[in-house]
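Per reviewer request, we include the raw input and output of the structure prediction for the construct analysed in the revised manuscript.
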Amino acid sequence: MDKGYVQVYTGNGKGKTTAALGLALRAAGAGLRVFIGQFTKGRTCSEHEALKRFGDLVTVRQFGEPEFIRGEASATDIEKAQAGFKQASAAVMSGGYSVVILDEINIAVYYKMVSADEVLELIDRKPEGVELILTGRNADPRIVEKADLVTEMREVKHYFSQGVVAREGIEE
């Protein structure tokens, strides 16, 4: 890739991570190497099993606890996010990946586990040929402004509000 762009998938609707994973699948299908860093996530889901089949092209790392953050981030949450951001930043700068996905990085910024300034600096330093994907609700307005493509997923209706829990193979 000659030119890599910065994409943001945000909003309160379902599909941000799914869109990013679809892009990873497309990139791997084209023979591109992909790094996926998942912030605030520490549980294995069905997509991890599928991505193992692309182990020569797709690297997945998780930087979070198995439980979702409720309220403030813990010291452990912050530590894992900071260590993960260093690892993800190294992936961006390494020259070894054409696509780097920072899944739920917007949540990590929102909960002050990683600063928006750190993400903005990474965007500024990103090599020309790296596509950078940033997902998660509550994207910082400065990151939205800096990005080349922003998609906001808006919830219109969701069966979760009717008590449907996450289903294997569909939501997890």
